[in-house]
Design a protein that fits this description.
This protein has 5 helices and no strands. It is mostly helical and 75 residues long. The longest helix has 20 residues, at 3-22. It starts with a helix and ends with a helix. The relative contact order is 0.20. The model has no long low-confidence stretch (mean pLDDT 96).
């Protein structure tokens, strides 16, 4: 994977982890609040190891109780 893409995935993952911890949610609770996510997927996303699909983004937003736009609002 390109270095630039890897950096973006890592920044996105850190942003997701920050949102989750600010909401005082564990990865398990996010998974329970979503439709199909499991803890391992959330961990991979937060660690920049997973390039997620649009439907996974929507499910992650649901699990966090956030609008998908808020997940994409990072630098």
């Amino acid at each position: 994977m390109e270095k630039h893409k890897e950096e973006k995935l890592k920044k996105f993952g850190l942003h997701i982890k920050k949102l989750r911890t600010e909401l005082n949610l564990s990865q398990d609770l996010v998974a329970l609040n979503s439709d199909k996510l499991i803890k391992a997927t959330i961990s991979d996303i937060e660690n920049g190891k997973r390039n997620l699909s649009f439907t996974t983004l929507l499910d992650l937003a649901k699990g966090l109780g956030k609008h998908p736009r808020e997940l994409l609002d990072f630098d």
